[in-house]
Amino acid sequence: TLPILLILCVLAYRFVPPVDTGRALMQIDGHRALNDSATISIVTAALASVMLGMLGFYMVSSAVRRDLETRTGFVIAAMPVGNGEYLAGKFFGNAAYLGAVVLGYMVNVMGMHLLRGEAPLEPLVYLGTFTVMIGPTILVVSALALLFECVPLLAGRLGDILYLFVWIAMVSVASGARRIPSLDWHHVADVFGMAFMQLQVGGTGPHDSLSIGSTVFDADKSVWIFPGIEWGWRSIAPRAMTAALAVPLLLIAGLAFGRFDPAIVKSGATHARRSPLDVLNRALKPLARLVAPLPGLGHGTSRLIAAETALGLMLGPAGLLWLMAAAIASLVTPFPVMLHGVVPLIFLGLVAAIAEIPTRDGAVGMTPLLLTMPRMRERYLPIKLCAAASTVLLFLLVPLLRLLIVRPDLALSLVIGGSFVAAAAVSLGVLSGGPKAFAGTFLLFLYGVVRSGGEPAMDFAGFTGSATGTTRMGYALATAALLMVAMAVRRRREGPN
């Protein structure tokens, strides 16, 4: 929770520029908006809504699975608690948790207002704006998280990746609604409130251009004052209807929920094994023979690293297929296509390949047994890190070799980027105890990199071709920081022994 809250707060500070930098948060027809409570609150709320729409799903999408894995669910199922009551508790618990994150973020933004605002702080304006902007987002995302957990085909790694496309679809719907002035279904499906914000800001009068985000302004033009949200029913009704979308999602989740009945759980597991990803993994089991010799390589720690790397590929042979397809595509495609198209897809596949490496032992109860091996306690985390890094290297080997010949500077960026991803997977896995924190955070980050338009600070692996020496140094330091956090957290949990 803390890292995600910090990410939101840092983005808010970067998103709201001080006036003396010559940049404005919002402009209409070239007139910059005054940085008052109405302006800062609606823009920062929109930023948090989009971010939380992605990260929030992964933050709360383990509520039911946690009860199943700890067997608490079987105790609850034996009590006079109805399915509706149980799911309602999970839903409102998820919503309250995300609401607490938003509350912390809002307090941070109000603190920033005291530093960069040009008008008195109005807490009630912030509270009202954040409620109407982010409230529906929290409710819909909480319901979607339960739906994905209760429907077997949507659970697991496949669902984690599929939600990225659900999120992109919701963003696209909001983009379409911004171009439609009248109320229609697009505005109801505007989960993130982007169209609502555009209508509120753009509806203040006729204008030729509207710019939201940090842009250069003309100091000779007068300052424009945004009057704030119009609190009439016609204005607020679309947000209320958006929040109501959570109801049918919860009804579908309730129909699919098995109440931890062992027979239904077993049946659900059977259905889950029929998901496209698991069907593909079973069909590709013969491919696992390609990595079967790996556990026999090396001695001591290197042998354990090879075994850990091979285990991940043997458990998910679809990853091997993705690896071979990536290698072939990296060889036969033109260099620009390889750099800008194939490499980002490789990183997308790496989410499924390495997300579970630091947490799968704990998920099946094997960690205590493994730690009884000689010197395993101090070697456990380095082995996990090296296994993740080895898997990343296998996926990126062919692009790396091509880059070494054509663009050695980008090859260095790719090495640093691969190390950064491996460190993030291990660190977030250690922090959260599950794969979803890394999956959600990295998928959102990867989407931001692809959509950044070549922003050097976002080019973590060099595939947009804009990475600089400062960029490489920054991600190298971030990699080291992630590893230090992972080691510190694990050492604290293990205690002095």
What is the topological layout?
Blueprint: H1 2-15, E1 23-28, E2 31-32, H2 37-60, H3 63-69, H4 72-77, H5 83-116, H6 123-150, H7 157-178, H8 185-188, H9 194-202, E3 210-216, H10 233-243, H11 246-256, H12 262-272, H13 276-283, H14 301-315, H15 317-332, H16 335-354, H17 360-363, H18 367-370, H19 376-406, H20 408-432, H21 436-450, H22 469-494
Antiparallel strand pairs: 1-2, 1-3
Helix pairs in contact: 1-2, 1-5, 2-5, 2-6, 2-7, 2-21, 5-6, 6-10, 6-11, 7-9, 14-19, 15-16, 15-19, 16-19, 16-21, 19-20, 20-21, 20-22
| End-to-end CA span | 28 Å
Strand fraction: under 5%
Report the biggest beta sheet as strand number plus sense, adding barrel if it closes: 3 strands, antiparallel
Mean pLDDT, rounded to whole units?
A: 83
- Number of separate helices: 22
Helical content stands at 55-70%
User: What structural class do helix, strand and pairing data support?
Assistant: mainly alpha
Rg computed from alpha carbons, rounded to a whole number of angstroms: 24 Å
- The counted number of beta strands is 3
Order of helices and strands: HEEHHHHHHHHEHHHHHHHHHHHHH
Molecular shape: globular
Low-confidence parts, pLDDT < 50 over ≥5 residues? 267-273
Q: Reading side by side through the largest sheet, how are the strands ordered?
A: 2-1-3
Task: Provide a quick synopsis of the model.
This protein has helices at residues 2-15, 37-60, 63-69, 72-77, 83-116, 123-150, 157-178, 185-188, 194-202, 233-243, 246-256, 262-272, 276-283, 301-315, 317-332, 335-354, 360-363, 367-370, 376-406, 408-432, 436-450, 469-494; strands spanning 23-28, 31-32, 210-216.
